[in-house]
Amino acid sequence: MQSDVCVIVPTIREYECMEAYVENAQLHDFDTDRLHVVLVTEDFCDTEEMQAMLDDLGVSGEVFDGSAREDWFDEQGISEYNDLIPEASHAQTSFGLLYMWATPEFEYGVFIDDDTLPHEEWDFFGQHLENLAFEGEIESVSSDEQWVNVLYENADEHGLYPRGYPYSAMHEDVETDTAQVDTVVASQGLWTNVPDLDAVRILMDGDLEGQAQTRTEFDDFGEDFVAAEGNYLTVCSMNLGFRREVIPAFYQLPMDDNEWAVGRFDDIWSGVFLKRACDLLGAQIYNGQPLCEHNKAPRSTFDDLHNEVAGLELNEHVWELVDDVEPSALPARDRDADAGVPSPEAFAAVFEAMGHELATGDHSQWRNGEFLNLVGETMLDWLDCLDRIEPVAAEPAPVAADD
Predict the structure, then answer these.
(1) Model confidence over 306-328: pLDDT tens digits?
(2) Residue 265, exposed/middle/buried by CB under 10 A (0-12, 13-18, 19+)?
(3) What is the pLDDT of residue 396?
(4) Residues spanned by the domain of 107
(5) Structure confidence by residue, pLDDT tens digits, 114-154
(6) Residue 252 lies in a domain
(7) What b/e string do you get for 159-193 counting C-beta neighbours within 10 Å, with b at 16 or more?
(8) Is residue 401 part of a domain?
(9) Which residues on adjacent β-strands are paired with residue 287?
(10) Would residue 164 be called left, alpha or beta, if left means φ above 0 and alpha means ψ between -120 and 50 degrees?
(11) Considering the domain boundaries, does residue 399 fall inside one?
(12) DSSP per-residue letters across 60-106
């Protein structure tokens, strides 16, 4: 069978996590021939060992360190866009999106962080694909702050807010309802063990090793849900499935490698932009299962704080800047409410409008506000880069010789 699921894993340490994910697929009879694994790594890592692991697992895949990524850009004739992928940053997951875009057979993508493991209770890949195909009634969550805490279901007990949740939106009044859903374009699996918190909240939880004293368990999660239209949520890329159609609006933003030292908001802000696009296009982000086990390695909480603090004020406002943004026009097929999954062109139109708003706005009232201009410019460059890539059909798998 031709691979139709591109699994993107940014890694410099625990790439062996893929052994557990492949084992999970086999346990649940998920066809691993559908998977193509892209390990995004650095020149100082042992890429040969990584490739050998994929070969031993019997799954299709490639390993891209910095040099291999440069070669790929050259082969595509888009070397001038190489700086869209920052060095030594989690935002390198965007390379996996470009790789997917260049191969139209990849209908689905899955982001996996290398410090996670699947729970055997779920067919990890199968559940994400089931979520993306979901049609029916599901819990819809909203708040008076226009933000939904993805950990809301047991928040009265643990008091946790995930990384990227605005401080100004805390202590919200939550309302739940039932929504009819028929166009899921992203599936966010949540996490047990170490919660995905920012450094300020980790310090408030009394932990100096970048993790958290408070941990999440199965009982902290209940019904799967969507955030209601007009409400935002944090989107973490450690456990995430998505349709290829969203790629134009899902750039993992340029972090860490910038003069303002803003970092760690790549997936958070890309999630904000994706949610705005979903609201405009009648699509949804599914949240809940499959859970993964997040085993974040100990590290200095103050190092994380240093990487986050430059963007904390911007994070309070970036969602407000795009909340009223609408494209001037959408492709004809996407004006029809019954058209099905919105086209890549529709997601691109919304992303372009948001990018223009950020690139041309005056954000000087906030510390490091000029970084938002850079973000907007790179969003527009992202769309230009996608336009330059000419997707090439993958070679058909060879037919096995008769014995």
Answers:
(1) 889 999 999 999 999 999 999 98
(2) buried
(3) 44
(4) 5-388
(5) 999 999 999 999 999 999 999 999 999 999 999 999 999 99
(6) yes
(7) ebbbbbbbeebeebeeeeeebebebbbbbbbbbbb
(8) no
(9) 188, 225
(10) left
(11) no
(12) EEEEE-HHHHHHHHHHHT-GGGGGGS-TTSGGGHHHHHHHHHT-TT-
Number of domains in the chain: 1
DSSP string over 212-242: -SS-B-GGG--S-EEEPTT-EE---TTEEEE
Token digits for 69? 């990524």
- Give the pLDDT score at 401: 41
Q: How many CA atoms lie within 13 A of 342 on its CB side?
A: 29
Token pair recorded at residue 307: 């990487």
CA–CA dist 242, 122 (Å, integer):
18
- How confident is the prediction for the chain on average, in pLDDT? 93
- Weakest-pLDDT range from 287-291, 337-341, 348-352, 360-364: 337-341
The pLDDT value given to residue 393? 57
314 within 8 A of 366, measured Cβ to Cβ: yes
Tokens found for residue 14: 């625990």
In a domain, 10, yes or no: yes
Helix (H, G, I), strand (E, B) or coil at 174: strand
Do 368 and 313 form a contact (C-beta atoms < 8 A)?
yes
Q: In this structure, what are the phi and psi dihedrals at residue 242, rounded to the nearest 5 degrees?
A: -160, 160
CA end-to-end span of the chain, whole Å?
Answer: 20
Predicted confidence (pLDDT) per residue in 236-266, tens digit: 999 999 999 999 999 999 898 889 989 889 9
Give CA–CA dist 194/295, Å, rounded.
Answer: 6
Distance CA 9, CA 17 (A): 10
Helices assigned H by DSSP within 223-341: 266-281, 301-309, 312-322
CA distance 55 to 49: 10
